[in-house]
Amino acid sequence: TLLLGVMGDPIGHSKSPAMHNIALEASGIPGMYVPLHVKPEQLGEAVAGTKALGFSGFNVTIPHKVEMMKLMDELDESAICCGAVNTVVIKDGKLKGYNTDGIGYVRSLKEELNSELSGKHITILGAGGAARGVVYALLREEPASVTIINRTVDKAEQLATEFSHDTLQVQSGSYDTLDKVLPQTDILINTTSIGMSPNNEETPLEQSQIPEGIVVSDLIYNPLETRFLREAKSRGCTVVGGLGMFVYQGAYAYEYWTGQSAPVSVMRSALLEAMN
Ligand code: ATR
C-alpha cells in the first residue's frame, strides 16, 4: 500500500487529500494520502518519521516549502531553481525534493490553450515565489521573450538576471513600463496575490490596460475567475485560471510517486467538488 500525504501548518483546508485519494482509487492503486499537520519546530522529526513509517512520498505546503530544501538527501533541478520543495519522493530510504508548481502551471497552460509556448512573448506580473517557479518552467519552453514586471523593481531585476542565459535575456521592469511591453505581449500572467480569496475585487491592471484578444492567465484559483480574468474576457482575451496549476502540480507528484500517468480529469472534478 502506497502511503502519501501533505505537510503544512495549517493543513485542514488542504484539497490535496481529496484530489489524490480519488486519483489512487480511479487508477486502482492501493494507497492512502493523508493530511499531516506539522509545526515548523517539528519539521525535521516529521520528515524522519515519514521514512520510518514507510511513506513513498509527500507534498509540502505553507510554511515548509523553503525549509524542506535542507532536509533532502537529493534535490531535483526544479527545486534548486525555485529554492523550494513542494514534492518529496522517498525511494530506498532516500528523500528527493522536487518542485512541481511551475511545471504544473506550464503544463496546464499548454493543455488549456492546446498550444506550445515556443516563440511566444510572455509577460509576468509579480516576482515572488510563484513567479520564480513559473519563470523556471517557461524558460524550458523556448519562448521568444519573458518580461517580469513587479512593484518592487529590484526583485524583478534579480529574478531576470538569475534566469537569463546565453540564448534568452529575461527582461524586467516596473508597472510604468507596461505601456511599452503590453503591445508586444502574447501571454500575460498574473503571479501576484492581488485578487486572491473569494469576493476580493482587487486587480493588478486596469481593464483598459489589458490588450484585446491576447491570452491572459491568473495563478489564483479561488475565486475560479478573478476580476482580472473577467475583465480580460470582456476585452476578447482567452483566459486561463489557476485551477489547472493545482491539478497539474499534483499530477506531476502523482506520476513521480506511482510511475503512472495521473487521471487528470478525475482529479480536477474532485478538486472542484472539495472547493464547494
Ligand atoms: P508568492 O510566493 O505567492 O509569489 P510572495 O513571494 O510574497 O508570494 O510574492 C507576492 C508577489 O505579489 C510579489 O511580486 C509582490 O510584489 P512586491 O515584490 O513588490 O511585494 C506582489 N504583490 C502583492 N501585493 C501587491 C500589490 N498590492 N501591488 C503590487 N504587487 C503586489
Automatic annotation (TrEMBL):
Pathway it acts in? Metabolic intermediate biosynthesis; chorismate biosynthesis; chorismate from D-erythrose 4-phosphate and phosphoenolpyruvate: step 4/7
- EC main class here is oxidoreductase
GO molecular function terms attached to this record: shikimate 3-dehydrogenase (NADP+) activity
Give the matching Gene3D superfamilies.
Leucine Dehydrogenase, chain A, domain 1, NAD(P)-binding Rossmann-like Domain
| Active site, renumbered | K65 (proton acceptor)
Q: Which catalysed reactions does the entry list for this protein? A: shikimate + NADP(+) = 3-dehydroshikimate + NADPH + H(+)
Superkingdom of source: Bacteria
Question: Which Enzyme Commission number(s) are listed?
Answer: 1.1.1.25
* Chain residues that bind NADP(+): E77, G126, A127, G128, G129, A130, N150, R151, T152, V153, D154, K155, L219, G242
Entry's CDD domains?
A: NAD_bind_Shikimate_DH (cd01065)
> Which of UniProt's keywords are assigned here?
Amino-acid biosynthesis, Aromatic amino acid biosynthesis, NADP, Oxidoreductase
- Please list the residue ranges annotated as the SDH C-terminal domain: 242-272
Question: Where along the chain is shikimate bound?
Answer: S14, K15, S16, T61, N86, D101, Y221, Q249
Describe the family membership recorded for this protein in Swiss-Prot or TrEMBL.
Belongs to the shikimate dehydrogenase family.
Summary of subunit composition and partner proteins: Homodimer.
Xref: NCBIfam families: aroE, PRK00258.2-2, PRK00258.3-3
Chain's role: Involved in the biosynthesis of the chorismate, which leads to the biosynthesis of aromatic amino acids. Catalyzes the reversible NADPH linked reduction of 3-dehydroshikimate (DHSA) to yield shikimate (SA).
Write the protein's name: Shikimate dehydrogenase (NADP(+))
**Source organism of this protein record:** Paenibacillus nicotianae
The organism's taxonomy opens as: Bacteria, Bacillati, Bacillota, Bacilli, Bacillales
Q: Gene of origin?
A: aroE
